Structures are given as C-alpha cells and as structure tokens.
C-alpha cells in the first residue's frame, strides 16, 4: 500500500518554525563575561579560559559553551562566533 502513504510537501514553510522567531538579546556585558570566562558557571568558565590560554577547547566543552550562550543567555551564535574566533589556534 505504498500509494496510500502521504507525500510530504517538497518545500517547507520556514516562517512557521518557532526557532526562526527567536529573539536574540543584545547583552554586551553577558557576552563579555562569557568570552572571558566569568559567567559563574564553572564548566563554561573553565572552557572559555582554556580557549584563551591555549587556543584550543575540547569538543564536548565547546558544545556546552555554545549551548550556554544560545540557550541560557539567548545571545546569537553569530555574535559568539565572532567573540570566540580570535583565540582559536586552528
């Protein structure tokens, strides 16, 4: 009964997705605290301090720091990328 399976639309209406309606905060103080490793959350702070000290961050810690920035602080990942790109070794 393959002919009875509904066919999904070829295009998705992205305007209806709630993730695209995300309102990002423009909090320069929190972005600076995140970047310098002074958020008060030990794992995030240790990861950001390691990044600045060595130019490297382990992938799992990198995901935690990125998720903290976007989900907890509600700061766009684009701003985080530009803030954290400078110390990267590779």
Q: Secondary-structure blueprint of this entry?
A:
Elements: H1 28-36, H2 42-54, H3 59-72, H4 77-84
Helix pairs in contact: 2-3
Q: How does this structure look, described?
A:
By secondary structure, the protein is mostly helical. The protein has a domain at 31-90: DNA Cyclobutane Dipyrimidine Photolyase, subunit A, domain 3 (Orthogonal Bundle). The chain has four helices and no strands. The chain has helices at residues 28-36, 42-54, 59-72, 77-84. It is globular, with a radius of gyration of 18 Å. The protein starts with 27 loop residues before the first helix and ends in a 6-residue tail after the last helix. The model has no long low-confidence stretch (mean pLDDT 81).
Compact description:
The protein has helices spanning 28-36, 42-54, 59-72, 77-84. The chain is mainly alpha-helical and 90 residues long.
Number of strands: 0
Share in helix: 40-55%
Question: What coarse outline follows from CA principal-axis ratios?
Answer: globular
Based on the coordinates given, report the CATH architecture of the domain at 31-90: Orthogonal Bundle
Mean pLDDT over the full residue set? 81
Q: Calculate the terminal CA-CA distance, rounded to whole Å.
A: 52 Å
CATH fold annotation of the domain at 31-90: DNA Cyclobutane Dipyrimidine Photolyase, subunit A, domain 3
SS summary, helix count: 4
SSE order, one letter for each helix or strand? HHHH
Please give the radius of gyration in angstroms: 18 Å
- The percent range for strand residues is under 5%
Structural class: mainly alpha
At the fourth level of CATH, the homologous superfamily of the domain at 31-90 is: DNA Cyclobutane Dipyrimidine Photolyase, subunit A, domain 3
Low-pLDDT runs of 5+ residues are none
Q: Largest sheet, described in full?
A: none
Broad CATH class of the domain at 31-90: Mainly Alpha
């Amino acid at each position: 009964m393959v002919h009875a399976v509904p066919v999904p639309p070829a295009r998705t209406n992205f305007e209806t997705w709630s993730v695209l309606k995300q309102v990002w905060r423009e909090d320069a103080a929190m972005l600076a605290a995140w970047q310098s490793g002074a958020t008060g959350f030990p794992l995030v702070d240790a990861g950001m301090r390691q990044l600045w000290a060595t130019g490297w961050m382990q992938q799992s810690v990198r995901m935690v720091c990125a998720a903290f920035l976007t989900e907890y602080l509600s700061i766009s990942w684009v701003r985080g990328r530009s803030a954290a790109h400078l110390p990267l070794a590779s």
